[in-house]
Amino acid sequence: QHIKFLSEGKSHGVYHQYGIATFSKHKIINTSMLDKDDGFPNGALITDIKINLDTIRIINVHFNSYRLSKENYHTLKFIKNVEKDSLESNDFFNLIETAKRGISTRWTEIKKIKSISNKSPYPVIISCDLNEAPNTYGYKHLSKDLNDAFLESGFGLGSTMVSPYPLRIDYLLSSPNLQPYNFEKGEDEISDHYPIWADYQLN
Fold first, then answer.
1. What are phi and psi of 84, to 5 degrees?
2. pTM to 2 decimal places
3. In what order do the strands lie in the sheet with 54-62?
4. Cα 169 from Cα 143, distance rounded (Å)
5. Residue 118, CB half-sphere, CA atoms under 13 Å: how many?
6. Half-sphere exposure of 17 toward its Cβ, with a 13 Å CA cutoff?
7. pLDDT tens string for the chain (203 positions)?
8. Residue 179 to residues 25, 56, 140, 191, Cα–Cα distance (Å)
9. What does the alpha-carbon distance between residue 102 and residue 161 come to, in Å, rounded to a whole number?
10. Are 105 and 132 spatial neighbours (Cβ–Cβ below 8 Å)?
11. What is the DSSP string of the chain?
């Protein structure tokens, strides 16, 4: 197992640890990580796993969100009711600036992970909460020349968010010689995301 805890403490009297983890029944031969000091506030794990005579690199990453505050969400909720003359309010521009910072941080992360993937000496699987939909430039850049497990073997809308609106922001991307099949999405609402998984054939 390869685990990175990013924070810990008590919430409502219950102790918790928040982080990111990669588990394997096969031998882990090398690990590295990226955290807030590397520009990854939600963390990223790079894990090399030996499977028989082959080695696979797993890049497990939670990309930056928009990091909106409660005040930002309040502004967003009522923005449709904002009068034209009041669009220059501090609340509105604070919302825009917060979103811009989130997008900028995520784009920097995406470029770095893509570079790590491209330079990998082993076939790669990127398992990620990208916080971006498939029609975005960020997704298209990250997934270029990689297999998207949902597109290869999934069906339906592929929504990964527990939401009344279909939104796919979690992905399993793999090198061309790692062919995904049996993509599935769980229905357990154990967080605000549904779990996803797939099998792979190394060609």
1. -55, -40
2. 0.84
3. 27-34, 44-51, 54-62, 124-129, 170-174, 147-148
4. 12
5. 11
6. 6
7. 777 666 666 666 777 777 889 999 999 999 999 988 888 888 899 999 999 999 999 999 999 876 555 565 555 555 555 554 555 566 666 666 667 777 888 999 999 999 999 999 999 999 999 999 999 999 999 999 999 999 999 998 888 988 877 889 999 999 999 999 999 999 887 788 899 999 999 98
8. 20, 13, 19, 28
9. 19
10. no
11. -EEEEEEEEEETTEEEEEEEEE--SSEEEEEEEE-GGGT-TT-EEEEEEEETTEEEEEEEEE-------HHHHHHHHHGGG--GGGTT-HHHHHHHHHHHHHHHHHHHHHHHHHHHHHT-SS-EEEEEE-SS-TTSHHHHHHHTTSEEHHHHH--S----BSSSS----EEEEE-TTEEEEEEEE----SSSB--EEEEEEE-
Token pair belonging to 103: 């997008």
